[in-house]
Amino acid sequence: SNFILANAQGRCGFPIVYCSDGFCDLTGFARTEVMQKNCSCRFLCGAETSEPILQSIEKALDSRQEYQTEVCFYKKGGAAFWCLLDIMPIKNEKGEVVLFLFSFKDITESRGRSCPGDKKEEKQRSEKQRSKKPGNAHLRAARRQGRTMLHQLSSQFVRRDRGEMKINRNVFENKPSIPEYKVASIQKSRFILLHYSIFKALWDWLILLATFYVAITVPYNVCFTGTEDSLSAARSTIVSDIAVEMLFILDIILNFRTTYVSQSGQVVYDPRSICIHYVATWFFVDLIAALPFDLLYIFNVTVTSLVHLLKTVRLLRLLRLLQKLDRYSQYSAMVLTLLMSMFALLAHWMACVWYVIGRQELESNDPRTWDIGWLHELGKRLEAPYINNSVGGPSIRSAYIASLYFTLSSLTSVGFGNVCANTDTEKIFSICTMLIGALMHAVVFGNVTAIIQRMYSRRSLYHTRMKDLKDFIRVHHLPQQLKQRMLEYFQTTWSVNNGIDTNELLHDFPDELRADVAMHLNKDILQLPIFETASRGCLRSLSLHIKTSFCAPGEYLLRQGDALQANYFVCSGSLEVLKDNVVLAILGKGDLIGADLCRTDQVIKTNADVKALTYCDLQHIGLRGLWEVLQLYPEYASKFTADIHQDLTFNLREGSEMEGLCRYSRSPRLSQAPQPRPESGAAPEKPLPSIVEDEEEPDEVFQQSPASSSRHKLLLP
């Protein structure tokens, strides 16, 4: 929406206290150029702007009445545009008019960009019709639109477009990570795969899943494929087994074309060096793991248990998992998943060994032990006993589930006795299982505890500091209102920075690195036009003096009469500038408040209160630190002191509140060309021949009432 808000309680005119981004886009003026001007819109006037309409606007302002008209205004660049102007007074709870809401709707296209002189009679007729029907449907719609804008303004002010800010590209461009001559020397082939690319990361996870599949199926096939049923079951998984083998073979080919990091920390792109490095490290392990044993099923070759034992060499690929743990050690959830997967995989392997021990006890033909083994006891309990030491018995599925149940109960506890060790061999294996379980408790669950504590360490710190704050409030008997403000401020600031002290965190880093980090953190304020001509060294020095602050709703950032210590930049949120309970300005994201610089020993007193309307994030640079930096860069100091008042949305220096109404007392487009200001003793500037300007003294502007003729009246001939 294109609108401005003006103070209706001003003693000297009605200064603008807020303008929307849409208004700035429509007129071409920046917010700093519009703030504190008179809302009569004289700065938008041009040669063909109707003076009677301007006088009607001033009359409506003086009488605090609603007004609507169509008027031809001019942009900053001199282009004319037609707009539908709606003026609505805003009252407070006492019924007093405190603000004026000006709504501008661009109707240039509907009017066909016609000049006011061409359709003077039609305009007069339309003005008479509007004066007779002030409550028409269009005006009611405009009122609703204005109230909607005011409601949105009270909740959250419009954010400024970052595109309006001028950016010094030479300062904020990314520096090359390595010198230029090294960049020019690197010529990577299209067929070389980067080891840190997204494709390689996804491929590694696919190979990891295939490795887990091999780690599950190979021990199972070795231990449970002694019968014909088991052999037929093994043949049913031949498709997936061959697919995994093809993945392993393709992985070997990709590894011959994948870069690696040398011991000196350089990324190696040379294909010959990559091949030599891979052959010397993981090639033979990957080659043995990729041998296609499952092709024997296709050619109907008799598969013995020896072939299944040879397939166990594929488990060597699990050594690659150690690289994954080291690489992803900073991701707690990922490490936790891998550790639990390794624990379940170990239980699976031991279940396979436990089943083999039971089968060996049955086939040993020892009359003292064959009928007391755990597998024989399981068969009797399930009413599927073994006959002739090997025939019959429970199914493979029941035997595997019972084996996995025993190993998991032994690894995590001491077992429950329903599946127990009876023979000496079984007891020895149970002892080994318990020892391994104790080790796994120390490794896996110890890491799990550390990971969970690390995940909740920040929350624990929050509760510790909150308890300290409550103890402080209780010991010093702070009043309830002050207590509530402190608790709310602490909770809100914690939600913003998560309890991280930036200065303490960056304290041990070198100055070069701290300056780069500070420039990134404070890039919003350093992109202001006032810093556009500053050198990179100057900006780096300034960034080290910029601090962040926070303000909660209802809190005062500054009080009238306080000594101003810094200039503030609004990163987010909304604030209002008050003086004697009168709104002087409404500030939003991207606004700069403070004061222009003077002598270093002079104390700057603030002329108004600055109060937060919403939660506000602010960046501020201390005036003392700013002076220290400007003394180091005198070539930039003169330009900064000369231009700072143009970039301040509101000047808080005492005595500067009257300057805003003096700016642009008449439209800059009414002059044919920019001319220098007359010096003392020089003749005053002559008005244009086509415009008659009332001669007045400058001091009379603020001595007479707003309704008097103190405003500069521009009369068309």
TrEMBL record:
SUPFAM superfamilies: cAMP-binding domain-like, PYP-like sensor domain (PAS domain), Voltage-gated potassium channels. Residues 110-129 have a biased composition (Basic and acidic residues). Residues 530-647 form the Cyclic nucleotide-binding domain. Residues 110-141, 667-717 are annotated as: Disordered. It is found in: Membrane. Residues 130-141 have a biased composition (Basic residues). It is a multi-pass membrane protein. The keyword Transport applies. Keywords: Glycoprotein, Ion channel, Ion transport, Membrane, Potassium, Potassium channel, Potassium transport, Transmembrane, Transmembrane helix, Transport, Voltage-gated channel. The chain crosses the membrane at residues 191-216, 236-254, 297-319, 331-357, 428-452. GO terms for biological process: regulation of membrane potential. GO terms for molecular function: voltage-gated potassium channel activity. Pore-forming (alpha) subunit of a voltage-gated delayed rectifier. Activates at more negative voltages, exhibits fast prepulse-independent activation kinetics and deactivates much more slowly, but shows no inactivation. PANTHER family: POTASSIUM VOLTAGE-GATED CHANNEL SUBFAMILY H MEMBER 4, VOLTAGE AND LIGAND GATED POTASSIUM CHANNEL. The potassium channel is probably composed of a homo- or heterotetrameric complex of pore-forming alpha subunits that can associate with modulating beta subunits. Belongs to the potassium channel family. H (Eag) (TC 1.A.1.20) subfamily. Kv12.3/KCNH4 sub-subfamily. This is Voltage-gated delayed rectifier potassium channel KCNH4. It comes from Chloropsis cyanopogon.
